[in-house]
Amino acid sequence: MKKILIVDDDLHIGNLLVDVLTREGYSTARAYSGTEALIKIKSEHPDLILLDLMLPGLSGEEVLPLTEGIPVIVLSAKADIAGKVGLLMNGAADYVTKPFNNSELVARIAVALRKYSAINEKSITSCGLTLDSETLTVTAGTEQVRLTRTECAILKLLMLNDSRPVGRTTILDKISMDTPDCTERSLKQHISNMRKKLQQADGKDHIEAVYGIGFRLV
Predict the structure, then answer these.
(1) pTM passes above 0.85
(2) Which tens digits make up the pLDDT trace of 157-191?
(3) Distance of alpha carbon 105 from its chain centroid, rounded?
(4) Same domain, 108 and 16
């Protein structure tokens, strides 16, 4: 059973989320402040976090970078586009504006859990590419391309984001455990090398630079 940590100091919303998620077969844990959320993350080991932004103690924005690779769906009444984009670029799996539709939220939770469970899968397929992270190879068209470990980690992250742009800082942070050699200076070169390999295999440019943000798979 997947466990979801609800981080919200609003008792009514928290109780509603517990009822909805329990009916959907999830177990729940609760935190009422940012500081308590960090404690619960370590003690409860949740599979996903629903995170409000306006919290006592540490804010949701301060908690987000400390969620240790757990998918986070931000639940907030803040609806400005710049804020949403910033949170998504800084690692949030999704952003849902309050008041939310229960069915839509449940669907978004299922998608986020499914996507993050794919991180541990050996083979991933997206945008016409099939990546085997165990053998460090990607199939483009009918050709199999050999990747470096760093290229494989970058491509895997882009493939898991379903054509959404991924920020440069997010890429470096997410792949740092597997590829500590990748730096901000070398990231562009790694991606350039990988684009050339893929283009030589099937004639397509699979990676697009998104001005001011980062990169995405196309």
Answers:
(1) no
(2) 898 887 789 888 888 888 876 676 788 888 999 99
(3) 16
(4) yes
